[in-house]
Design goal:
This protein has about 220 residues and is of the alpha+beta class. The chain has 7 helices and 6 strands; from the N terminus they run H-E-E-H-E-E-E-E-H-H-H-H-H. The protein has a 5-stranded mixed β-barrel with strand order 1-3-4-5-6.
């Protein structure tokens, strides 16, 4: 597993940044996938409706909202909170796919889902509750020992190989963001991480989920 972070590229630093974000944009509902501010999310786009979404977004402001479905069906209900990302990398493959990277800008709440003619869904977003995302986030370094300990147990149980030197060297905020996005938690757990109030809360929630994942697997092994 590669731990990655792009926290050197901050989405904004003042109130004006909030107003520069588009209020209307397409959304990409994807279960088990979250985007956090400052994080990088690689996506393999192959469905025709989402190829059109990427094409249209690149013609406009390059913003796409990542959000998780909260139900089944062709038009599932959505969790109320997602994260807007900007297309920071784009590659068209010979077999017709789009390989893109979304860089997280700011979380949002759905103010309204629009009735549209496009094959993809679009929303009006409310960024106001999450405007602190546009400021640098700091987590107390006292969280690092507990996080690393929980990671060692979790990765051992799940047989995940990592570069521990990279983890030790990584800035704490970027490390937490990357882990929250790439660890194989359940969709509801991913959503809990997405909706944490700040960096310290993200760290504490991440540690709790890692410990729960380890205990769950240990308990299963003990019973069998």
């Amino acid at each position: 597993m590669t731990i990655f972070s792009d926290h050197d590229s901050e989405p904004g630093s003042d109130q004006d940044a909030l107003h520069r974000l588009p209020s209307r944009f397409p959304i990409f509902p994807l279960s088990g996938a979250i985007l956090l501010p400052g994080g990088n999310l690689p996506l393999n786009i192959f469905e025709p409706r989402y190829l059109q979404m990427v094409k249209d977004a690149r013609r406009r402001d390059k913003v796409i909202g990542m959000i998780q479905p909260n139900g089944g069906g062709d038009t599932p209900a959505l969790y109320p909170v997602g994260c807007a990302g900007k297309i920071s990398n784009f590659e068209a493959t010979e077999d017709g796919r789009n390989l893109i990277t979304l860089t997280g800008l700011c979380r949002f709440e759905i103010a309204e889902e629009l009735t549209v003619a496009t094959p993809y869904r679009q929303v009006i977003a409310d960024f106001e509750p999450w405007q602190n995302d546009l400021q640098p986030q700091q987590a107390p370094d006292s969280l690092r020992p507990d996080l690393v300990e929980a990671l060692r147990s979790y990765f051992a149980v799940h047989d995940i190989s990592v570069d521990w030197g990279q983890i030790e060297r990584a800035p704490l905020e970027g490390l937490m963001t990357s882990l929250a996005m790439i660890c194989p938690f359940e969709p509801s757990e991913k959503q809990a991480l997405l909706e944490t109030a700040d960096a310290p809360s993200l760290g504490r929630t991440l540690i709790a989920l890692l410990k729960m994942g380890t205990l769950t697997d240990d308990s299963f092994t003990a019973r069998h």
